[in-house]
Amino acid sequence: MDLSLSTRTVGDRTVVEVGGEIDVYTAPKLREQLVELVNDGSFHLVVDMEGVDFLDSTGLGVLVGGLKRVRAHEGSLRLVCNQERILKIFRITGLTKVFPIHTSVEEAVSATD
C-alpha cells in the first residue's frame, strides 16, 4: 500500500494527514514532508495518523526525527491516533512518554501540553 500525505493549517498548527502504511518503503516520503515543513518555518506540527494502517520501526524513527527537528526550534509535534493496534506500538516502545497522543485533531490543536 502507498502513503498519502496532505497538509493544512488549523490555528497556529500545521496538520499533516497521513494515510496508508508508514514502513521502510514509504517512511522517506513522510520524512521529506516533515523536513520541508520545518525548513519552511512550521514548528508546531500535528501528525494525524487516523488513516494509518501500518507503522513499523522506520516510521517511528521518522516521527522521532521530526520531533527532534521541531524541538530544535522550540516547537512541538503532537500525534492524533485512536487505533489500538497503532497505539500499542507507541506503548511497547515507551514513546507514549515522548509524544503527546490525542484522539482528534481538534483536541491536539487546542491542547497545552
TrEMBL record:
Q: Which NCBIfam families match?
A: ant_ant_sig
Tell me which family the UniProt entry assigns to this protein: Belongs to the anti-sigma-factor antagonist family.
Q: Which SUPFAM superfamilies match?
A: SpoIIaa-like
Q: Start and end of every STAS domain?
A: 3-112
Q: Which PROSITE patterns match?
A: STAS
| Database matches in InterPro entries | Anti-sigma_ant, STAS_dom, STAS_dom_sf
Q: Which residues form a coiled coil?
A: none
This chain belongs to the protein called Anti-sigma factor antagonist
Name the CDD domains for this protein: STAS_anti-anti-sigma_factors
Q: What is the lineage of its organism?
A: Bacteria, Bacillati, Actinomycetota, Actinomycetes, Kitasatosporales
Which Gene3D superfamilies does the entry link to?
Answer: STAS domain
- Write down the species: Streptomyces anatolicus
